[in-house]
Design goal:
The chain has about 300 residues and is mostly helical. The protein has 13 helices and no strands.
Amino acid sequence: MNDLKFSELKNLFPGLNLSQPNFILLVIDVLLIYTQIFFGIYLCFKFSGFILLIGVLLIGSGQHGLALLAHEGVHSLLSVNRRINDFFARWFFASPILLPYDLYRSRHFQHHRFVSTDLDTKELYRENIEGKEVFYSIIRSLFFCDYIKQVLTVINRNALAKTQKSSYFYDYFSIFIVQVLIASIFSLLFGFQYYFLFWVMPLLTVCFMIGKFRSIAEHRPFNSEINYSSDGKYYMNTKSPIIRSIKPNFFEKLLVSKINFCYHKEHHLYPNVSYQYLPHIYNISINKAGELETYFSTLKKLWRN
């Protein structure tokens, strides 16, 4: 399967547009993600202590789900109509989580093109989580360090990219409008301070932490994959880019890997395929690398590296 071109892959699924998701299933997935966020907010206001922390976790996880939906939009996989695709991806998925949509699209395409090389725009998977380092990594996430690092990385890369011509004004305009709307809703219903407590803080901590550890599980090499004897072009001198698919358990599907993002290798092979059909791509693969592991078991192996 790995040698099939996208045009050849489509012939294996006659009558099915692999780039066009089923609209009803897409709407259900979107509603489920927003319902999780609203339920998390409800828990935060109705309960305290441990239940409140669960609410914050559900909010941050749901916000990460919005990032995954924005990712589908970046690949124009929400609608065959580009304007409709970008409108919903920008205003309903990216802007609510402070994600500059056009800038994200540019950086994400570079990630696909240069994955696991020095030019890869995704860097969080390079964070070491061996031994006690995993606890430091969690602390960095919870104290906004990951978010600050990401912002500084983007600023630095844009400063170095002399070919960068777009100002991305529309990105920041849409973020401003949506954030004002969200803050206004919080102010009217609960109080302005809760916009920061139960929207911004989960976004800049829990959401980023989930994204980081998911990325580490999908891209960071195991010790057995590292080549210590020579210098290669890929991260940690691996023979090829590390791109893993994962088999999440129920809780990982709820918190980490919504909309089939666990089929990460299949997505990198065929980025024009909607998330709804990635399991089909995996099922016809002739190069399956044994039984897929969960995110937890994968991270556990990397922790013990």
